[in-house]
């Protein structure tokens, strides 16, 4: 038993050696990955981690600067959760793939060694047609049926997964341990904007590909540093709708949701609807003994200068939600409007500092030994 201080908050943590109530799907997961899983569950009961996509790769007006993030420029701390993407691991030349792996490897290892957490989205370039990861009428093929076992592009898909596995095996810290990652494939599958979206594939094919992907990575390719996250967009209004394409408890560690539409996109807010959806999968995760997270959200350009405290944190503190983290989307390098976290001088900067100072939220500086059984915050 231990009392742990965070800012002016207390977090009570109790571990029983050798006994875990929440078991992840990979029984052979590395010690650090298992510990992260348990610690995320503990944190989610009273607090939430803040995450930002591509936080360390680039930001508003800069790119590839060591140990920089827009979040750190505002608060003095990197986000607790850093988002990266495997988009360049397929549909590129071998040289381009290796270059992408080298850049991301350093990102992941550096985050791990600082004590932060990496989550991975996968904007998967269509392996069976042109069109990239978006669905483009007249160009894109409905390819999940082609990459599933027995499909025309299944062997090609296995090679792509080998590239991912090779990367997962390579993210070794100086002490030789592998950096854990939260892997979130085929996200927003209930929409139609990606080629794996609901209108482009059957429920059966989606589940078959998901189950093969997880099994092949952990059981055949020996990837044991992944936590697997399942995250539709916000197009559900009940537990049954949320679970329509659920591949089964043995293939998912974390339940999530991407939701921009209810939280101010295009000036439209429906916070009651957003909270109701968060409550659906948070309660479901508690029932299934899984993790839950708000895997993507945000308000582009953040024109609402009180969005962090009057919209986001108010919602997150409601209804006894148990969410491990909330992640906002990226800050583009050149666009004057495409950003989701503040930078110095942005109108919501002061409110974001209040969000940072709230005992409910954790950033990277608040994490100590998150990969240990006895972590400090």
TrEMBL record:
Q: What name appears for this protein in its UniProt entry?
A: Mannan endo-1,4-beta-mannosidase
Keyword entries, A-Z: Carbohydrate metabolism, Glycosidase, Hydrolase, Secreted, Signal
| Pfam families, A to Z | Glyco_hydro_26
Record's catalysed reaction(s): Random hydrolysis of (1->4)-beta-D-mannosidic linkages in mannans, galactomannans and glucomannans
Q: Where in the cell is it found?
A: Secreted
UniProt EC number: 3.2.1.78
Q: Where is the signal peptide?
A: 1-23
- The GH26 domain sits at 31-365
Active site (UniProt): 188 (proton donor), 296 (nucleophile)
* Similarity comment: family membership: Belongs to the glycosyl hydrolase 26 family.
| Main localization category | secreted
Gene3D superfamilies, per database record: Glycosidases
Which molecular-function annotations from GO does this UniProt entry contain?
A: hydrolase activity
What InterPro entries does the record tag this protein with?
GH (IPR017853), GH26_dom (IPR022790), Glyco_hydro_26 (IPR000805), MANB/E (IPR016714)
Top-level division of the source organism's lineage: Bacteria
Q: Which organism is it from?
A: Flavobacterium chungangensis
């Amino acid at each position: 038993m231990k009392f742990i201080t965070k800012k002016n908050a207390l977090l009570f943590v109790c571990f029983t050696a050798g006994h875990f109530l929440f078991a992840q799907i990979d029984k052979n997961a590395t010690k650090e990955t298992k510990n992260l899983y348990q610690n995320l569950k503990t944190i989610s009961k009273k607090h939430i981690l803040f995450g930002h996509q591509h936080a360390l790769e680039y930001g508003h007006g800069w790119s590839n600067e060591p140990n920089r993030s827009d979040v750190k420029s505002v608060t003095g701390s990197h986000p607790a959760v850093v988002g990266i993407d495997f988009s360049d691991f397929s549909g590129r030349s071998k040289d381009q793939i290796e270059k992408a792996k080298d850049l991301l490897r350093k990102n992941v290892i550096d985050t791990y060694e600082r004590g932060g957490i990496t989550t991975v989205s996968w904007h998967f370039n269509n392996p069976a047609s042109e069109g990239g990861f978006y669905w483009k009428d007249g160009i894109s093929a409905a390819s999940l049926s082609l990459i599933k076992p027995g499909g025309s592009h299944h062997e090609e898909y296995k090679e792509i997964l080998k590239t991912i596995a090779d990367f997962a095996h390579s993210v070794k810290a100086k002490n030789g341990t592998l950096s854990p990652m939260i892997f979130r494939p085929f996200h927003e599958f209930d929409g139609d904007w990606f080629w794996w979206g609901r209108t482009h594939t059957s429920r059966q094919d989606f589940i078959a590909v998901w189950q093969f992907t997880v099994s092949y990575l952990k059981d055949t390719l020996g990837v044991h540093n992944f936590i697997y996250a399942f995250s539709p967009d916000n197009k559900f209004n009940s537990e049954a709708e949320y679970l329509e394409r659920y591949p089964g408890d043995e293939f998912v560690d974390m339940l999530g949701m991407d939701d921009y539409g209810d939280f101010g996109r295009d000036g439209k807010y429906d916070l009651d609807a957003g909270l109701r959806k968060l409550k659906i999968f948070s309660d479901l995760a508690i029932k299934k003994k899984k993790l839950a997270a708000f895997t993507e959200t945000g308000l582009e350009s953040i024109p609402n200068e009180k969005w962090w405290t009057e919209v986001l944190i108010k919602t997150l503190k409601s209804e006894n939600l148990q969410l491990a983290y909330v992640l906002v989307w990226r800050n583009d390098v050149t666009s004057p409007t495409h950003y989701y976290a503040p930078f110095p001088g942005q109108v919501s900067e002061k409110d974001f500092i209040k969000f940072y100072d709230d005992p409910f939220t954790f950033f990277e500086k608040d994490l100590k030994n998150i990969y240990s059984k006895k972590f400090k915050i």
